[in-house]
Amino acid sequence: MLLRNKKSLSIKIISAAFAVLFLFVCNAAAQKISQQTVITGDSMEVRRSGDVTVSKGNSKAVNGNNVITSDNMIYNKKNSLLEASGRVKIVSVVNTKEPLEAYSSFAEYDINTEKGKLWGAKTNVKYFLSGSSAPVVLKAQEIYFNGGLETLSAFKDVEIITSSGTIFSDKAVYNKKDDTITMEKDGESLKRPTADIYYDGRKAFYEADKMIFHASSDSKKIIMTGGVSGKMEMEDKIQ
Question: Which CATH number is 89's domain given?
Answer without folding.
Answer: 2.60.450.10
